[in-house]
Amino acid sequence: MKTHYDTLIFDLSKESRIGYQYTEKNLNEVNLPQNLLRASSADLPEVSEFDVVRHFTNVSQKNFGVETGFYPLGSCTMKYNPKINDELATLSGFSNIHPLQPDSTMQGLLQIYHETQEMLSEISGLKAYSLNPFAGAHGELAGLMIIKAYHEKNNDSKRNKIIIPDSAHGTNPASATVCGFDVIEIKSNLDGTVNMHALKEVLSDEIAGLMLTNPNTAGVFEKDILEISKLVHNAGGLLYYDGANLNALLGHAKPGDMGFDITHINLHKTFSTPHGGGGPGSGPVGVCEKLVEFLPNPIVVKNGNTYHLGEAKDSIGNLGLFYGNASVYIRAYVYLRTLGKENIKDVGSLAVLNANYIKDSLKDLYELPIDGHCMHEFVFDGLKDSSTGVKTLDIAKRLLDYGYHAPTIYFPLIFHQSMMIEPTEVESKDTLDSFINIMRIVAKEAIENPDIVKTAPHNTIVRRLDEVKAVKNPILKYKDIK
Ligand SMILES: *Cc1c(COP(=O)(O)O)cnc(C)c1O
After folding, report:
1. 207-212 and 238-243 as β-strands: parallel, antiparallel, unpaired?
2. Model-level pTM?
3. Given this chain, do its domains 97-343 and 345-470 carry the same CATH topology?
């Protein structure tokens, strides 16, 4: 039922109700030039301060976030972002830096930039990083531009094809296409790993490289990775690692050791920047030794005891103005320094333990297409008993009624009813147990009362949406709602 406080703030307006009043003195302090003054008053709601507080508090609770409840959205790594990281990133010494001020006056920020580059190199086993790209997909584009520049420099520009397995994240083929490559999609094995036969068939002297996610989107570690990298390198191609979700590997394994030449890392997934609302993000790109000269600018270099903005010799250029999203590196830096080398291993171990715990606790009721040990995430293929017609979409919607965010659904595309679950390392056993309990209740409802699941959600602010219409015809203005 709608309450008074579900009402939009414009409808609460009562003429002359006042929340705050400027005094003559405040107004004189502002002293705006005559041409900027309003001719008539703005059409604002007239409400009390208390109405405003209630309005915004209520609005803030209409959404779901990792701070309101468990958020097992696979491939998104929705972990807790410690508040101290936000606080340090907004210290005025950082947030008031002007992009054009001289290097000598911002040594602290440049040191953070440099040390973050170095820590990412160590974590991933690659030689050097540029923090410039603004998101994961932007880092992919940077990496692919580097692949292109490398082959062109070797007078090998007929290499215009990128191999991508069909289990890959959608941004991989999109970035490759934007970069002007032709995409060769290869079918995966049943567990989402690379089919060696399919790979060998497409290797040729037109291959620029292979893009791979490891562990793959089904949460399976690519055990043939050394063989794969040998094959691609022998064919003259480069290996691109999609490191958007680095959780499972942290402190345990390095893409560089697996033979990867290039990677991007999503600082806003693995390294604790809040995400999900569209940014800001950061997708640093790292490369092996022979590709360092192509990195995007700027790169921060250390000369003696001072830090400077440097440029790569054959750089693909700047992908964004100035430094990239500095506040995101500062958060990643604080996160890494807080954990330290000793504790970073626990991130991977706990993320993997939590995912396996949920998987094994539910596989009697949900279809598990890939049995065995998973990494930081895994995929169910709908309910085991699908006789009542309850689908993955229905289960996802029903979970909202119980106060849980839905898993990623219908991705990866290799299964028809994919439900991709990633708990991350930060959730307690109690949280996992209560989620497991609700998943079991929903599976039972699907048999005993399927309609309640098929018509869910029932308790949310909006009911089941026409998702296509919501994207194609969004209503963003208050006036249109009426
Ligand atoms: C999230 C993700 C990306 C894209 O990252 P954005 O920052 O959203 O552009 C790429 N690959 C994988 C596997 C991802 O999970």
Report:
1. parallel
2. 0.89
3. no
**Distance from residue 119's CA to the centre of ligand 1 (Å):** 21
Atom 6 of ligand 1, nearest CA residue: 136
CATH assignment, 97-343: 3.40.640.10
Per residue in 2-32, pLDDT (tens digit) is 555 556 777 888 988 888 877 888 777 777 8
Q: Is 255 or 54 the better-scoring residue by pLDDT?
A: 255
Q: What is the pLDDT of residue 324?
A: 86
pLDDT tens, position by position, 50-87: 988 988 888 888 888 898 899 999 999 999 999 999 99
Beta carbon of 171 within 6 Å of any ligand 1 atom: yes
Q: For residue 248, report the distance from its CA to the centre of ligand 1, in Å.
A: 15
How many beta carbons lie within 10 A of that of residue 55, not counting itself?
17
How does pLDDT run across 314-352, given as a tens digit for each residue?
A: 999 999 888 889 999 999 999 999 999 999 999 999 999
The finding on whether 242 has its CB within 6 A of some atom of ligand 1 is yes
Cα of 168 vs centre of ligand 1, distance in Å, is 10
Asked whether 452 and 395 are in contact (CB, 8 A), the reply is no
77 CA → ligand 1 middle, Å: 10
Give the ligand 1 atom nearest the CA of 138.
9
Q: Does ligand 1 lie within 6 Å of residue 266's CB atom?
A: yes
Other beta carbons within 10 Å of 482: 7
Give the residue extent of every domain in the chain: 4-31+41-62, 97-343, 345-470
Q: Is the CB of 261 under 6 A from ligand 1?
A: no
What's the topology of domain 345-470?
Aspartate Aminotransferase, domain 1 (3.90.1150)
